[in-house]
Amino acid sequence: xxxxxxxxxxxxxxxxxxxxxxxxxxxxxxxxxxxxxxxxxxxxxxxxxxxxxxxxxxxxxxxxxxxxxxxxxxxxxxxxxxxxxxxxxxxxxxxxxxxxxxxxxxxxxxxxxxxxxxxxxxxxxxxxxxxxxxxxxxxxxxxxxxxxxxxxxxxxxxxxxxxxxxxxxxxxxxxxxxxxxxxxxxxxxxxxxxxxxxxxxxxxxxxxxx
Length: 210
Description:
The protein is mostly helical. It has helices at residues 12-17, 21-33, 38-45, 49-61, 102-129, 136-141, 153-167; strands spanning 6-9, 65-67, 81-83, 87-90. Helix 2 (21-33) crosses helix 4 (49-61) and helix 3 packs across helix 4 (49-61). The model has no long low-confidence stretch (mean pLDDT 86).
């Protein structure tokens, strides 16, 4: 069983390396599916095995992936790779504001976040297009929901921690002996304050005060 490990990626070079769509797709594929060879990755990300091998080596250069075994020799395209962590956070830690490089890292992180939002949207579009091909039980199980919450920052932090604790036992890389019928599922949990609403506290006072 893989041990859960969440890693904070602060190296600007690593953040910039993930500006490449194929590297993001490779990393996301390994995070979702576990150890894979470059040849196996090629069929998923739409690139040649040799091209995948190059980009996997670049990801390994920045500590994002690693070899899944200690084997030596043979064709590198047939040796499996795995993610270096079961979860990744990007950008400087909150207490790094005094670091002169923190601003550069934050800008690189912001570009990466925008790219990941686009990647998630593209995956969801493909999933919706493939929905009719699923068996009936998966028709019922798939969820697309949005919620308009009214919470404080502390409440949102607590809610995120509860959702994380709820989902964590089901993470594919770390789940031991999943039941028959288990499939790889993509879950996105985003929670942001709605732009342009700062200081607006929801419904009017029932007494008519504004």
